[in-house]
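Researcher: Please predict.
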Amino acid sequence: MTRLYIKVVMMLVLFSVAGLALAHGERNQEPFLRMKTLHWYDIKWSIENDSTVQVNEEVTMSGKVHFFSRWPEQINMPDTVFLANATPGPVFVRVGTWLNDVPMIQSTGVEVGRVYDFKVVLKARIPGRHHVHPMFNVESAGGLVGPGIWMNIAGDANDFLYGVETRTGIVIEDLETYGVENVVKWHAFWAILAVLWLAWWVRRPLLINRFLWVKDNNWSALITRTDMMVGGILLVFIITVLIVANQITEKTYPRTVPLQGGKVEVQYVPNPEEGLVEVKNHTSEYYLPGRTITIDATITNNTGKVIQIGEFMSSNLRFVNKKLPIAMAGVDEGYPAELVPNKGLILSDDSPIQPGESRRLRMEATDVAWETERLSSLLNDPDSSYGALIFFFDEEGNRYTSEIYGQILPTFFDK
């Protein structure tokens, strides 16, 4: 009975872990990839978390993405990136993507230290419950994933249609099935031809006899005149088929566009509020028993206005200053609850920072998410450092963003 109980418990644990892995594959990425590459914020979804859409309905993800200025040396710079989406398979069709209002049909290059507006429109395709994220594919680095929510797709996958109108005015009712019949026909033609060619050779003894012919240099028995004649006829036949098929294709599709290998240019739109608040990291520690990151930093206010710290954000985790109403108002109800720690951001001095003032203070970000998101493993990295954004607000509601970066050390003692 005890063994049965243990087996049941182990199966439940395995299933729960598998469920987490299914929903949050981004947790498998190294902490430096998540903390020192992209910072996603102001993310909006056109539907609420865990809500349902029907097959063929569209959903939209939009927001801002900040490319960290201290980009990791272990991966390529983001000179070639592609805006996409992360889903468990082709459960959505990507209808369109935009970066700073520029269509992202092709790849582009971005500048580190800059912020870009993005938008991704998806069309529901396969029923089920799926975790959906915005994502940037970076050349030689792979996909860098943003925050995601659950989306339920209801209906029948056979009802899915993705129609488009070409530049020449031809209407294609469904891209998913367009041209499939022609593809099947040509694959069957070449498969039959290959089988006949193979059958021509396997009709005679294969291994022993041929080995003896090669050993005796009896090439005329190995490849006969008939073999060469059949091979020649087949060669002429294949070349003729290719020429005729090419002519038919050119006549049927007189205007074609090759796959584009270039990159589109996206202009960076300067933000006058960037860099007005300077943040200098002095020491940073991760308190393992308490799952707390403590940062000792100096804040210099160059905005000309009174400001307060509203949020500390890294790896999609948002530690919000709950004593600042305007910061709390910026947390959208649709944002994943597991990425907004309940305790929020604790400051050693949360009084307003005056214009021109430099203040040294301590910030504490405490939550089990450092463990569940597998971010505490940054202590095992050869370069144990972190990257984050800090959001500041003035009395008029204006927001200022600043990067913070520094080495981080483990500690087992609370201070």
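Model: The chain is about 25% helix and 35% strand.
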